[in-house]
From TrEMBL:
Pathway: Purine metabolism; IMP biosynthesis via salvage pathway; IMP from hypoxanthine: step 1/1. This is Hypoxanthine phosphoribosyltransferase. The gene is hpt. It comes from the Bacteria. It is found in: Cytoplasm. Keywords: Cytoplasm, Glycosyltransferase, Magnesium, Metal-binding, Nucleotide-binding, Purine salvage, Transferase. Its EC number is 2.4.2.8. Belongs to the purine/pyrimidine phosphoribosyltransferase family. Its cofactor is Mg(2+). InterPro entries: HGPRT, Hxn_phspho_trans, PRTase-like, PRTase_dom.
Amino acid sequence: MKAPKRKLKVLISEEQLQQRCRELAAQINEDFAGDSVHIIGVLKGSFMFLSDLVKHLTIDVSIDFLGLSSYGTSQETSGVVRMTSDLALPIKGRNVIIVEDIIDTGLTMKYLLENLRTRMPADIKVCTLLSKPANTREDVPLDYVGFTIGDEFVIGYGLDDAEFSRNIPYIGVVDLEDED
Ligand SMILES: O=P(O)(O)OC[C@H]1O[C@H](OP(=O)(O)OP(=O)(O)O)[C@H](O)[C@@H]1O
Ligand code: HPA
Ligand SMILES: [Mg+2]
């Protein structure tokens, strides 16, 4: 199977991503000083952002993951969020920070917040690398936002297009001017 060959435009560079990870981590360190946080990464898209973010956390941190999927091979949500894998650890009484790559329509985060609240954490905060407000349909509280972007399909740094391109080290968009 081959990934589509397209010209990509850099929307957010590696340097900008690293700088923002340091800034977001500094804010979390300050907000939870003297306390501990339980980080929940939403797979698959969040894996690169999460691994860069947590390197800069100096507070006590535990980490778990769950898998959610709603896009499949499409660039539009199916509208149905499916849990592909659940957490390994309980979250009752914990200060949870959900780490996501992107809030697009908001459907995934709405589903996740409803699900996790039933497990009685002490607190839930949302940390997302990207927010696409022009496309957001569900009103979800965002506590830490890396970058606000326009209504365009982005790939790289964990985000995929039909499972390809997650390994690109920056956030890119397809450069339509260079399409044949
Ligand atoms: O706000 P929404 O419109 O719900 O979109 C955001 C969600 O969509 C993507 O997941 P996807 O279903 O592509 O799974 P993946 O992380 O495995 O790529 C992304 O990683 C978010 O979890
Ligand atoms: O813009 C996007 N790119 C990749 N995956 C996504 N999932 C929701 N929105 C996006
Ligand atoms: Mg995806």
